[in-house]
Amino acid sequence: MRLLSSLIALCLSFATFANATDDKVYTLTLATTWAEQVPFLGSAPATLAQTVDQMSNGRLKIKVDSPNKHKAPFGVMDMVKTGQYDLAYTASYYYKGKDYKLVFFTTVPFGMLVSEQYAWYNHGGGKELAAKVYGEHGLTSYPMGTTGIQMGGWFKKEIKSLEDLKGLKFRIPGQGGEVMAKLGVNAMSTPPGELYTALERGTIDAVEWISPVFDFAMGFHKLANYYYTGWQEPASEIQLLANKKKIDALPADLKAILEVAINHVGTQLMTQATHANANAWENIAKDFPNVKVQQFPADVMAALKKSAREIEEEQAAKDPIFKEILESQRAYLAKVRPWTLIGEYGYLKQLEK
Ligand code: CA
Description:
Blueprint: H1 2-22, E1 26-32, H2 44-55, E2 60-65, H3 67-70, H4 76-81, E3 87-90, H5 114-123, H6 126-135, E4 139-148, E5 153-155, E6 169-171, H7 174-181, E7 186-188, H8 195-201, E8 206-207, H9 212-218, E9 226-228, E10 236-243, H10 244-248, H11 252-282, H12 284-287, E11 292-294, H13 298-318, H14 320-352
Parallel strand pairs: 1-2, 1-3, 6-7, 6-8, 9-11
Antiparallel strand pairs: 3-10, 4-10, 5-8, 5-9
Calcium ion (CA) binds near residues 150, 209, 210 and 233.
């Protein structure tokens, strides 16, 4: 009996000791690029906060600030670097002006599809390259969802040949814009809030945005009839960027909880994107019969590919790590694409017969 009560006392004291250390609450601050009303990208950080709170029994909290609060949607990476925030939810390619090779961790023109890119990241050396690149910035990066493949944009006039692109006022930012500019396009980066009016007034002739669920919310289908399939962003990946010192100082269990939660929320977001686009597209033929899905002609596609390659080679000549990642992705694509072609693409082709 005495032995039992001693054991209980011992257990209780262990429990008290364990609680004394475990009860400490860690709070991380997160700055996000997207306002809450943006479909699913806007709510993902709050879902992450709720998930880590539940998994850690309240020991890990994340305080989310939207762009309305921090006022710098494209400054969040810097705010995490300097320690003003602990975490940022954003897309790496917004920061190509600071470090061009960050584009590889979002998506690149003519690059990998979502399934191929995740395979490269998780098993083909991508994660190690990301650690090297973000490590230089004092950051750790985690993939946290993808909006999937993007469409090539809304055009008021059909593009029949390369000639039709000359002087075209096309809102297409980022790497896609650089590629288009080499073909004589007047590539513009009109701010999102002005896009509808710009297209309506003819300040722009065409606009590249994201995919049906996002594009319909902007109303482009009411102004432009031709909806082109994509080439510029085949797998747009979203990142959770963390201040490395801050994350490494977390207790190991909380760090593991955070990582598992990021992965979980990211997977949810990927399926949300597919689901929401399917819903958005479901009634297009009935509601907007004017919309025609088009593909760019062969001469345009060949010129776009050539231009994309040239830009990659220019960057590779300037930065050996850019070159290393470029070669890693190209080698992986050469390996994985034949499987995609005989697998999923082969299945779809067969169904068309
Ligand atoms: Ca886009």
